[in-house]
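note to self — DONT lose this again. spent like an hour looking for the file last time. sequence + predicted structure for the chain T wanted, 124 res
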Amino acid sequence: QVQLVESGGGLVQAGGSLRLSCTASGRDFRKYSMGWFRQAPGKERDFVATISWAGGYFYPESVRGRFTISRDIKKKMVYLQMDKLKPEDTAVYYCATMRDPFMGAQDLEDFAFWGQGTQVTVSS
């Protein structure tokens, strides 16, 4: 049973930084790509960063250069370092993993398991 638990959200001023963590369990995560998504009130869930099982990265233009995804395979942890935060980054952030093993970082449609989310609020 796949379980993902996020932590590290909170309130931060614009220009500040936060680091989100995701604790994963229930499978051999060396084979599975991981990612972070976010959902703001009244908006659809968007992807923020992905890291493939092989270590490849994928970011949307909106966060590229400000956000960094990383992982610690031994600890089964995935992190999202968020710098230069903007008010528009305010959202609930979700950790996710894919249904199938050995998928690429850009295979967004394969994400199938989600954590409960952690709130990030950026004040102006």
